[in-house]
Amino acid sequence: MKALFTQKLTVLNAGLASFASNIERAGGEAIAMNWQPPAGGDRQGGLALAELLNQPEIELANQTAMERYLAAQPMLVDVMLAGEAIPTLAEKKLILHAGPPIPWQEMCGPVQGAILGAILFEKWADDLEQAEALIHAGEVTFEPCHHFDAVGPMAGIISRSMPLWVVENPNNGNERVYSNFNEGLGKVLRFGANSPAVIERLEWMGTELAQAMKAMLVQSGPIELKPIMAQALHMGDEVHNRNAAATGLLLKQLVPALLNTAEPKEQIQRVISFITANDHFFLNLSMAACKCMLKAAENIPNSTMVTVMARNGVNFGIRLSGTGNTWFQAPANPVDGLFFPGYGVEDAAADLGDSAITETAGVGGFAMASSPAIVKFVGGTPIDATNNSRAMQAITLGGNPAFTLPALNFAPTAAGIDARKVADHSVLPIINTGIAHKQAGVGQIGAGITTAPMQCFVDALQTFAAQREH
């Protein structure tokens, strides 16, 4: 084809590749743009987004939410049984689970298996058949952990006799949040296992381990969690899927205080052995710290800052500061990751757990640049990890100077997800996550990368815009 242009024409192509081909055949140059329509192409969502951009009252509200999140200082202050910390659990047969609300019949295998295990642990039934019969009779009820300011990884199960970490924020009226204890790897309740060995471990955790941790805190006093997380980021953790450094740093504070307690020497030895054998021990404290920071940013009128992201193995749910306790849900996106030998995508449950609270707070997947070794667990390359951290800057309100990334010249982690920016830039929050087998009790079968579904943010913005109209 004869060139049509006397001077070379350069255009930006935001459409189909065939548009660019015609320009190039005519002698011009086309530069492809990685562009997608806002709000995932949802017309009503796009209109809601247009109403919410560049609104002074929203910018001010988001600034307030961000300031409260940054000012939070999560402190580990106590260990309590769940029925004491959350009285509603002691009043009825209630079990808390990860993610947004979901009825029993729609739950995934690991969550159902973990709930049955919790019923056996509480001695409400003698065997699995009796436990399931209680559920079908309507004698056991279920609610998300987040409804009680609690978080739990994977299935996230909390019942009345389980021990909880108690984390307070002195800069927010000493409001409390809670997390359960980490059981370690293998056949564990959070992956749906409910064998006698699992129940026996839970009973030990609720007695010896909990007693030792409570006594330790009497000796040590409150433990600041943000400094541990910050230092761990400089030591190769991202404090979601990798907590080896954070657990070691915690141990440095636990052991001297434990040795000053009156607990029997043999008990202290068992406790220290349990913690040192579990690199994920700090995960639940990381989650509680992140929940504590984000709780300070909740319920600020006109704020589009995301305060919760959570998954129940079927659906993904988010909450915004300005819409309070309302959940916005969509089917959980698949996980792109590495599977253990013998397993594949056909074996996997959908994304599961409250641990995405770490990404909501600007660590985890948002801080992957600090943890190049994580790619050997979740897939990709160290460059991918760095690019993921950079990409999150497009959808956040700012950075958290308490958490810095050495690989990015100690830049602060991107933090404060703005639902408007997610929809406007078509960039989804990235999450690194473990992969559970879809059948209860098999356990973890891999790990990888996933994202929050766009529909959650589109629905949230439409509801947010409608509230402003009224």
For the biggest β-sheet, the strand order reads: 6-8-7-3-9
Q: How many domains make up the 3D coordinates? A: 3
Distance between the termini: 59 Å
Task: Find the count of extended strands (DSSP E, 2+ residues).
Answer: 18
The unreliable regions are: none
For this structure, what is the CATH class of the largest domain? Alpha Beta
Fraction in beta strands: 15-25%
Tell me, rounded to a whole number, the average pLDDT. 93
Radius of gyration: 23 Å
Q: What is the name of the CATH architecture of the largest domain?
A: Alpha-Beta Complex
Give me the CATH superfamily of the largest domain: Enterococcus faecalis V583 domain
Main sheet: strands, sense, barrel = 5 strands, mixed
Protein name: DUF1116 domain-containing protein
InterPro entries: AllG-like, OXTCase_su_AllG_h-dom
Pfam families: AllG
Write up this protein:
This protein has helices at residues 17-25, 43-52, 56-71, 82-85, 87-91, 109-121, 128-136, 196-220, 226-233, 244-259, 265-276, 283-295, 357-360, 375-378, 382-391, 419-425, 454-469; strands at 10-13, 29-32, 75-81, 94-97, 141-144, 150-151, 163-169, 175-180, 223-224, 306-312, 315-320, 328-331, 336-339, 352-353, 396-405, 411-417, 430-436, 444-451. It has 470 residues and is α+β, with helices and mostly antiparallel strands. Strand 11 and strand 12 form a beta hairpin. Helix 6 (109-121) crosses helix 8, helix 8 crosses helix 10 (244-259) and helix 10 (244-259) runs antiparallel to helix 11 (265-276).
